[in-house]
Design goal:
The complex is a heterodimer of chains A (about 100) and B (about 375). Chain A has about 100 residues and is mainly β. Chain A has one domain: OB fold (Dihydrolipoamide Acetyltransferase, E2P) (Beta Barrel). Helix content of chain A is about 0%, strand content about 45%. Chain A is elongated. With about 375 residues, chain B is of the alpha/beta class. Chain B has two domains: about 130 residues, Thiolase/Chalcone synthase (Peroxisomal Thiolase, Chain A, domain 1, 3-Layer(aba) Sandwich), CATH 3.40.47; about 220 residues, Peroxisomal Thiolase, Chain A, domain 1, CATH 3.40.47. A nine-stranded mixed β-sheet of chain B has the order 3-2-4-7-1-8-11-10-9, sandwiched between helices. In chain B, strands 5-6 form a two-stranded antiparallel sheet. In chain B, a hairpin with a 2-residue loop joins strand 5 and strand 6. In chain B, helix 7 crosses helix 11 and helix 11 crosses helix 12. Classes of the chains: A mainly beta (about 100), B alpha/beta (about 375). Chains A and B meet through strand 4, strand 5 and strand 6 of A and helix 4, helix 5, helix 6 and strand 5 of B.
Chain lengths: ~100, ~375
């Protein structure tokens, strides 16, 4: 499952979520739901250090910035084999964290 | 509209409360110690200070307002500038305009922070609402994660390699070895830089600043007042700031300097080739390269060639971050936004003992701050000139 905000007034999609449309300042925001959303990988990193003990066991953690076809850019976990330029399917995982497969 | 010149304004009394790795003191202690140093350097009483610009992360829940009561100041002009690494030139702009307008006679500009076992984690975990919901949950990398991805995109766009970043870090360390105020003064070679442990690919240990405690400050007043008090000062030839520039760039490849640099150089009446020292905001070397490009020291995407061509050491070409920068002096929170400005003033006043650039007439200072979500939002810069 994946949800992205869209403005009912101007049609702009946005992320991170907010109460107001960052483009036209309308407050008519709709959550659009899909199973997954296609996105292009813009940049990646592999974390070898984290500020939170709960992530220690998972290091190194692969992360990336991905751009949805709708426009917004999200930071998300990536599978290790993904590279910039790849298209991925992004969803919200069971642990409530964005994951890409 | 072309901004009015900053004529008639004196920037003086650069002071530093020396940085320490960790401190039991609160942020207010560091900020108040710098205020004391400013009064001593300026030969002034607290009642002479009628303007205050303040920046700090760890002063929370307090702001500049609370600080006035904490130290017993009654300013008639007060600026709280939570703009992170861009705060030096921005404080300078606000203070200069307040003096020009007659809203203040003497403005104390101060930035600093404390540091302890938990302060950095607390800061990055709750840095902003966007970071809290959309960045920090993904591995809690903090700024390392953001800058790793910005560096990744920069390297692929320009052909920059770790060796380019390393050259800047190594040159800054060589400069820091001549600065008693720098916390990191051991020799650093390119081989050591390249062999350092990985933090967030492509960033390794010596790409990252060491959080520490400390504070910096300066005074802004009319030139005639500075002369009356016999205070050596420098002039402001130009200054710019910009926030949330290029919001549609998918990954940050440039900052607001690109929009405002023509204004900066036109106001200054000189070009990049006329400055004898450059102080950029170096939370990571890749950001220095964005500033070289953004401020017109080289063309867009030409950062790697520019770095290859120059030495960036005190006695070399393009003396850069001549005190060692944050990479070698440490990042005392918001004071990181003042560090380059303070170093530029010391260089122009001939006070950079042991690391003095030969006869500098002009200096370029630039600031960068606030990774609200995926990029730094605040940019600033100033061109300073010997009076």
């Amino acid at each position: 499952m994946m949800r992205l905000q869209r403005c009912a007034a101007c049609g702009a999609a946005q992320y991170p979520p907010r109460e107001i449309c960052g483009t036209c300042l309308s407050d008519c925001i709709i959550w659009e739901t899909a199973n997954t959303l296609a996105a292009c990988v813009l940049a990646t990193t592999r974390l070898h250090h984290t500020n939170e003990p709960r992530f220690h066991a998972q290091l190194p953690i692969t992360l990336g910035l991905v751009q949805f076809a709708e426009g917004p850019v999200a930071m998300c976990f990536l599978s290790r084999t993904v590279a910039p330029g790849d298209t991925v399917q992004v969803h919200i995982g069971a642990d409530d964290l964005l994951e890409a497969k | 509209m072309t901004p009015r010149p900053y004529e008639g304004i004196a920037l003086c009394c650069p002071v530093t409360e020396p940085y320490v790795r960790r401190s039991p003191h609160g942020a207010a202690w560091f900020l108040a110690r710098v205020l004391r140093r400013l009064l001593d350097a300026g030969g002034m009483a607290k009642t002479d200070i009628d303007g205050l610009c303040l920046s700090s992360f760890t002063l929370v829940p307090d702001t500049a307002v609370a600080f006035t009561q904490y130290v017993g100041l009654s300013p008639r002009c007060l600026e709280w500038l939570p703009v992170g690494g861009a705060c030096g030139p921005i404080a300078l702009r606000r203070a200069a305009r307040a003096v020009q307008a007659g809203d203040a006679d003497v403005v104390a500009c101060i930035a600093g922070d404390t540091a302890n076992e938990t302060s950095f984690r607390n800061l990055v975990a709750d840095f902003s609402s966007f970071a809290r919901t959309a960045a920090y949950p993904y591995g809690a990398g903090g700024p390392n994660a953001n800058f790793a991805m910005i560096a990744d995109a920069y390297m692929r766009a320009t052909g920059a390699t770790r060796k380019h970043f390393g050259k800047l870090a190594v040159a800054q360390r060589a400069n820091a070895r001549r600065n008693p105020l720098a916390l990191l003064r051991d020799e650093l070679t390119l081989e050591q830089y390249l062999a350092a442990r990985t933090i967030a690919e492509p960033l390794h240990l010596f790409d990252c600043v060491m959080p520490c405690a400390g504070a910096d400050g300066f005074l802004v007043m009319a030139e005639d007042r500075a002369r009356r008090h016999r205070l050596p000062f420098v002039g402001i030839l130009g200054a710019i700031e910009r926030h949330n520039a290029f919001p549609d760039d998918p990954v940050q490849r440039r900052g607001g300097w690109v929009i405002d640099r023509d204004t900066l150089w036109a106001q200054a009446g000189i070009g990049p080739g006329d400055v004898q020292c450059v102080q950029t905001y170096d939370d990571y070397p890749v950001i220095c390269m964005l500033q070289f490009e953004g401020l017109g020291l080289c063309d867009e995407c030409a950062g790697p060639a520019f770095v290859r061509r120059h030495s960036f050491t005190i006695d070399g070409t393009w003396p850069h971050n001549t005190g060692g920068g944050q990479l070698s002096m440490g990042q005392a929170g918001a004071a990181g936004g003042y560090l380059g400005l303070i170093e530029a003033v010391r260089q122009l006043l001939g006070q950079a003992t042991g690391r003095q650039v030969a006869n500098p007439r002009h200096a370029l200072v630039s600031g960068f701050g606030m990774i609200n979500y995926d990029r730094g939002l605040c940019t600033s810069a100033a061109v300073l000139g010997r009076a």
